[in-house]
Task: structure prediction
Amino acid sequence: MMKLRLKPIVWLGNSKDVVRDWPLATKKRAGEELYRLQIGSEPLHWRGMKSVGRGVREIKISEGGEHRVFYVMRRDEGILVLHAFEKKTQRTAKSDINLGKQRLKLWK
Result:
């Protein structure tokens, strides 16, 4: 039997703590979506976030409100979680986009 090799997740800034503080159903959905990435699949609900940076995507979670996770895939490092937040308005706040950009820039 072949063992499944999961891609590692690297949490930048306080993103892991933010996800830990989400309601249980939201946290569970985030975990399921990140697991799909770890096994080499696509998340069920995502979109590209060119406004944050090249290759950055956003996982969309609609459990217990609107929550988002910005991430980018890196061949060597695995999955970089740049930012996680609760979305309060229709448009993604400029401050969330800027924080994602800043963390991506610091990583490079």
Remarks:
- The helical segments are 15-20, 24-38, 94-107.
- The beta strands are 9-11, 46-48, 57-61, 66-74, 78-87.
- The radius of gyration is 13 Å.
